[in-house]
Each structure stands twice: as structure tokens, then as C-alpha cells.
Design brief:
By secondary structure, this protein is α+β, with helices and mostly antiparallel strands. Helices cover 21% and strands 48% of the residues. The chain has three helices and ten strands. The strands form two sheets. Strands 1, 2, 3, 4, 5, 6, 7 and 8 form an eight-stranded mixed beta sheet that branches.
């Protein structure tokens, strides 16, 4: 689900920054940019449907995922502005378009943008972070191979059930 969330944000033309996956080992893009980290994922049990359609069994499950977004900019003003625009995009603009259409919802109501600046090599890195807890519902299916007949052998006797 984390990959889908990031992909949906990056396909928007009005996104304030490109959001990359955290801890990916790749070179940092030019500033400003965003980084997303999946902090936790909690998936409920899978509920298989009793009805089998066309040799396929369907399952539905719900899950929650907390994603931390970090926005890094050239200066304090840029980083804060881009973080605010990204949060508003995710929470308000995408709620009824991308999120709802893909079975994704936002759980937490109070999302706070926090400064997390740091000094590295005598230069300041300006960053702001915020966490969003998403909920989602997924439908999965699996193919079933049903036996057409069963052959039993016992003491040189053969019994065939449901077949020839």
C-alpha cells in the first residue's frame, strides 16, 4: 500500500515536491524534495468469501499504515511552504479523488507539521515532517484447483468418486 500512496502523490501535476522512498540508497535529488517512510503497518486477518466464482476465491482485508513525510528545502521558508502544500494536497485535495477511488482513507484528524532541522558539515538542513495514518481495504483472489474425481485404493480394491 505504501508504494501505491507514494505513486498516487507523484502522479499529481500539482504536487509541490517529488516524494521519494526513504532508505533507498540512491543519491538525493535536488532540493526541494520529499521523502516518505512507512513507520508501521497493521493488517487485519483475511476474510475469505464463502462464494466461489469461476474457480476463484475472493478475500477482503483491512489494514492501517502510518507514513511519515519529510520535506527538505534550500531554506526555512521553502521547506515549510512545501511541507504545508504537500500536507494539504494529501489530506484535502486527494481525499475524494485518488484515496477514495483506491479504497484508502485517512484516520488521524490532527496532523501537525514539525520542524526537524539539523546542522551537517557546518550547513543547515531545513526539514519539516508530519505523520499520516492511512486505512485501506483490499480485495485479493486466489485460483482454486478443484478435484474432478478422487481415486482410492485399499487392499487391491479401487474406488473412484465423481469421475469415470
Amino acid at each position: 500500500m505504501f508504494t501505491i500512496i507514494r505513486k498516487l502523490i507523484n502522479t499529481r501535476v500539482d504536487k509541490p515536491v517529488e516524494v521519494i522512498e526513504g532508505y533507498n540508497g540512491k543519491k538525493e535529488p535536488p532540493k526541494p524534495y520529499g521523502v516518505a517512510y512507512e513507520l508501521s503497518e497493521n493488517t487485519e486477518d483475511v476474510f475469505w468469501d464463502d462464494e466461489i466464482l469461476k474457480d476463484k476465491e475472493h478475500a477482503f482485508f483491512e489494514g492501517e499504515s502510518t507514513v511519515q513525510f519529510e520535506v527538505i528545502g534550500e531554506n526555512l521558508k521553502e521547506a515549510k511552504e512545501k511541507a504545508t502544500v504537500l500536507k494539504n494536497l494529501i489530506v484535502y485535495k486527494m481525499r475524494y479523488q485518488e484515496w477514495e477511488q483506491n479504497g484508502i482513507g485517512i484516520i488521524n484528524e490532527n496532523i501537525v507539521i514539525k520542524p526537524m532541522h539539523e546542522e551537517q558539515s557546518k550547513q543547515w538542513i531545513y526539514r519539516f515532517i508530519f505523520d499520516i495514518k492511512f486505512e485501506y481495504k483490499l480485495e485479493i483472489e486466489r485460483a482454486l484447483d478443484l478435484a474432478k474425481s478422487i481415486e482410492l485404493s485399499l487392499n487391491n480394491s479401487e474406488i473412484i468418486i465423481g469421475g469415470k
